[in-house]
User: Which sequence fits this backbone?
């Protein structure tokens, strides 16, 4: 995959609705293999004109511990992000509340034994809010499976569900990242655990590569039916974003010049408007997925695209979409 940090950035667009408060509920932090995206890099993006007041970090295998029990090594990521969040706080009240919520990894296939890992994350940071155990799987060799190396139906696995059941005990949320053919597995999981809040990442991962290349028009109705089945469960909320990745098939990363916010809005609007209709604004939140989506566009341009899509919403609906839903779900 193209390194998003090497993508040339276009001239900055004028910021739309610069006073609208934003909680960005999905970004990553890493410093590895010559690619660096930590506090200064994030703040550079947050400073592109939009009023980002807080953010939520989502796991990406950063700074795992290299010693100790294997199950507890992901707690190193919570330690790493807590240090960054504390550094941001020390910079003063003008600095956004970076990583005000932290979503880390714990192997839920540990079953009830995952309690030790969840308690270690909670001890590592008061900002810890939940778990993402990515389940993206596809039989095609052209589609890379998630970094957790999951089986095809992880969300249906008995042992996984035994671990998943422990989240509600600790008041933790579950971020769900997978591909669109797996949406019905998520609907089944959500129905089985109505007391656990589930956040559907990246509108359910509509694929546009491999066997789905140039098939967006054909896939969209299937995706919509599957998302509707998920939305029928009131414990699920959805993140509107994360479809500027190469796997989504729009190929913006291959262009010599990145797309404008008008182009992004035109391509992404059907997905986001469908989700807003099915879930309602109080169960939807716009997300950046940076720096991953940086491979296609700049941070400022992306949020301009979101604002174009939401231009017809009422003030209370905009508050929900850009800030309040994320703030409520992640308690930030």
Assistant:
């Amino acid at each position: 995959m193209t390194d998003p940090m090497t993508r040339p950035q276009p001239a900055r667009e004028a910021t739309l609705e610069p006073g609208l408060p934003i909680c960005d509920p999905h970004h990553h932090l890493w410093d590895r293999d010559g690619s660096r995206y930590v506090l200064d890099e994030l703040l550079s993006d947050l400073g592109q004109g939009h009023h980002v007041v807080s953010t939520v970090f989502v796991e990406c295998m950063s700074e795992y511990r290299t010693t100790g029990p294997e199950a507890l090594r992901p707690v190193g990521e919570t330690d790493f992000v807590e240090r960054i969040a504390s550094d941001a706080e020390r910079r003063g009240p003008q600095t956004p509340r970076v990583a005000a919520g932290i979503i880390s990894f714990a192997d839920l296939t540990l079953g009830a034994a995952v309690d030790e890992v969840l308690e270690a994350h909670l001890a590592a940071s008061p900002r810890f809010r939940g778990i993402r155990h990515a389940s993206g799987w596809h039989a095609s060799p052209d589609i890379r499976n998630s970094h957790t190396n999951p089986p095809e139906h992880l969300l249906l696995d008995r042992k996984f569900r035994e671990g998943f059941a422990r989240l509600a005990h600790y008041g933790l949320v579950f971020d769900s990242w997978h591909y669109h053919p797996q949406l019905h597995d998520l609907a089944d999981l959500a129905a089985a655990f109505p007391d656990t809040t589930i956040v559907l990442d990246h509108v359910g991962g509509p694929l546009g590569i491999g066997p789905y290349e140039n098939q967006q028009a054909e896939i969209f109705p299937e995706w919509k039916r599957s998302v509707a089945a998920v939305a029928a469960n009131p414990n699920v909320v959805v993140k509107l974003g994360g479809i500027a990745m190469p796997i989504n098939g729009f190929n913006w990363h291959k262009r010599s010049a990145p797309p404008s916010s008008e182009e992004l809005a035109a391509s992404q609007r059907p997905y986001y408007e469908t989700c807003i209709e099915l879930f309602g604004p109080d169960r939807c939140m716009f997300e950046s997925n940076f720096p991953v989506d940086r491979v296609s566009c700049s941070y400022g341009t992306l949020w301009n695209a979101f604002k174009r899509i939401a231009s017809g919403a009422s003030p209370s609906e905009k508050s929900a979409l850009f800030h309040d839903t994320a703030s409520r779900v992640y308690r930030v």
About this structure: The chain is about 35% helix and 15% strand. The longest strand covers residues 51-58.
